[in-house]
């Protein structure tokens, strides 16, 4: 054993497999690689890594990291365990249903892999500040939410201080859907970031409200009618809980009744649940592939034992195994890491309110509740309430009253730590 | 996903008629949305044998136990070593050391799912192969990880000896490199979950659809209804009208297609009638004839169909019936009952849906009368519903993959990375057989060369692969094993459920550069040169090759090259003093810069056009009947206007990228932008008269090409000699436009999930 100090749990031969890599450079290994004790000591005694999400990907990531030799692992997850997790989240058992994922996963790993410390946090990533994120060498995300990814991405990009190289935290992000998945490496401010590739997201299926209300064709339209229109009408302010079987049951029955009325077939319990919870099919095998890819990159970055992914790996397993590895390019006008203003062309009579709608729907912007200002003038602010009220009359005014041709607008969001500069052209 | 979620419900409805599903359905909900109850039931009836309890083996099993296979056995006679205890999640650290590896792994795997049955078998595989082979063949599927090559050969022989024996997945890995192969005789898939949608038969409407659509009077409609007529109806009516005015023909030429589209938009009363926009976008359905998809038509040639017995698998009896069905006019597959969503009001959409459903039922009944053996109704339903996505994979014996040294040698220059990695792993196995001790670069290279015809040269890619194997010859890395665990389990699930499409061949994995590639099976058509040489050699059709011309016109000393150097600077010349153009360099400059690309085109295109003109004149003078212009960017360069017809040969994007990259050794990014710089598929379809999708083997390409040439010869007739050059000459050509039809990139939308 090279480093005896902290590793009382390490038995002779424990790292036989990994050490074949760490003791010798390969043909494609960077010159900076410190084969032997140097790199082993860093990996096993110094590296501190954060895993965001303890779900399908998170469980796999934690197990891989622990076996690879990372010994100081932190994990954040705000969810509790549901029975539908058990087909893939292999650190959980039926008895754990209802318990916090982060805590149960951490305990399992520590029990199974001796000498590894996993520190769980049962809560939101937004609860933590820069100081918290600054303590890690690397961050791996196994999330199912676009919003959370955008938040951590923007936070890590903003955290980069050019004076302090330690402030740059590599972010490795994975995601899966059915037999498909992707893994990517983001070096904040250096490579393309999550926000740079926002236009690659599938457009969420949004049904026009008039279709739902008047001319439904699909079972989905009936379910949307039940959840978006009927629930608030019947239940008032009572919040809908998509995990409550009684609520789903009510939605199912209401949707089924409407479907019958319109001769539409196919409203089922499963579809109802799928639509209202926006369920994405998920299986253990795909999660295993993507989590392994993420951890493999984490290992290569932490040890320099081999070149790491530059920067996007995509896998489609429905027809054979098709993978595609490419460099996603940085966008100069990316609102998070780009620095240059984004050009937006609007009609001359566009109102402030219409601009907000455009920003919400635009594939590369997708800001849910934007606040707008031009120089020192506030066009519209979402919060605080007093300022919202004060700026509300501007919504109906024409944009051209505030912003000249080629003038810039700053867009900020309450949910994302970023600010986007827009250069407006009237056409 | 919509389609899938419907499937699962209709299939699991027996589990929960009303209200909340039971615990099992809830537990498996996220996977039932993929493979439905039928797939689940196949998993639950499967029995899987895994040879060795290595980290990779247990990773594979974990991903099979979780979704609920019926039974698994780990066959492993070894005891847990300290090394095993360090890298296998399904061992309990030091406390497992010295115990049976099979027993420990089975115990911990079983904790994952109480409905799975598992067994540890501590016999030696060598002994079982010798004394108890029927035990091995009693499983559904056998998976072997890093099994000693001699034993692997015997296992492969045993399982291959009878086509009813289980399939075998062979997995090999060392360090960052790995590969796996599935050995099977034949694998029939009904539910391939293909992303290709079945035809709506707009060009061949069934009577009820035709009557409904043609009797609809748009002039008497109220304004709201007018904007809600489904596009299917709009197109059927307009196409009928068009055909009546054009001697029964659909829009054929580009101008006709344009005129047809204009007539759709002319029907709009108000700007916001989106149903007409949708109709315009879907107009190509009017001129792409509904036929039996070539992939399905190929299945009809299956020799087995001629000699079926009542005991033959249902799949083949169903296939015979399908063949008979398609032999009748209008020569199509049975109609699919599912109608995609489209702009419409409730009434018109539901009405249309009912028309399709009723017709689909009728055609299914017709299909059933053609069935000669009784097949369960449920299976007939599934078969008819998925007829457009049927697959029949023909596999190979594991040891046959590398049996032909020259095939392997041919792959090396075409797919250098994966062929080299595969070769290196094969060499590693050979070294192990010979007990040569720790492999070295020399021993591995020697073994690799022994697998190849003498004189084959190995590239840097081979050194890269071999270097990694020398570095970590016995490493079963946690991340590699987890990655393989996922991939192999995915394939196992596809094999067991007979849903989705498993790999047919060998999948090579490199986790340094992070890629997986399938290949090394049959002769993959190399594309352009293949098509061109086939046309010349097999059909004696002269080819004027624009790519070749494009090279000739910029050779040292040509006026075009002088202008290129003037525009882009002398750095676009090779540094070897030849004065020749550095095409790769120029390529990377122009493909990322639209302005520069235009500048280059302005120099090269006129020169190429002149060269082509002379090429054609020469053919004409020789009295050729047909001549082919092989033009990479036919549509973009507007040359299509001067030709008699356009034949498009295109590759699905992924195949194309792979080929482009391996041919030019360019980076993915370069390749992607090169594809992006060309017109997207949908736009180009409008220009095409004949289409060939070059996604299969060389044999498939040849078959498709032969059919097209036959049709073109028929259609083209003897018009050519009557034309007078120069203008008429160009109009009397048909053109092979290779490579100019790409899918919109990326064809499979990369998603972030």
Automatic annotation (TrEMBL), chain A:
Does Nuclease count among this protein's keywords? Answer: no
UniProt-listed Enzyme Commission number(s): 6.2.1.64
One GO term in the molecular function aspect is:
ubiquitin activating enzyme activity
Gene3D superfamilies xref list: NAD(P)-binding Rossmann-like Domain, Ubiquitin activating enzymes (Uba3). Chain: B, domain 2, Ubiquitin-like 2 activating enzyme e1b. Chain: B, domain 3
| Keywords associated with the record | ATP-binding, Ligase, Nucleotide-binding, Ubl conjugation pathway
Q: Where is the active site?
A: 210 (glycyl thioester intermediate)
Q: Which reaction does it catalyse?
A: ATP + [NEDD8 protein] + [E1 NEDD8-activating enzyme]-L-cysteine = AMP + diphosphate + [E1 NEDD8-activating enzyme]-S-[NEDD8 protein]-yl-L-cysteine
Q: Which Pfam families does the record match to this protein?
A: E2_bind, ThiF
Highest taxon above the source species: Eukaryota
**What is the role of the protein in this entry?**
Catalytic subunit of the dimeric E1 enzyme, which activates NEDD8.
Q: Which family does it belong to?
A: Belongs to the ubiquitin-activating E1 family. UBA3 subfamily.
The protein's name is NEDD8-activating enzyme E1 catalytic subunit
**Species classification:** Eukaryota, Fungi, Dikarya, Basidiomycota, Agaricomycotina
UniProtKB/TrEMBL annotation, chain B:
Q: Where does the source fall among the domains of life?
A: Eukaryota
> Keyword Nucleotide-binding, does the record have it?
yes
Q: Where is this region: Disordered?
A: 1-22
Q: Which Pfam families match?
A: CoaE, ThiF
> Which PROSITE patterns does its entry note?
DPCK (PS51219)
UniProt entry tagged with the keyword Repeat: no
Query: Where do the THIF-type NAD/FAD binding fold domain residues begin and end?
Result: 28-143
Keywords from the named record:
ATP-binding, Nucleotide-binding
Please name the NCBIfam families in this protein's record.
dephospho-CoA kinase
Query: What name does this protein carry?
Result: THIF-type NAD/FAD binding fold domain-containing protein
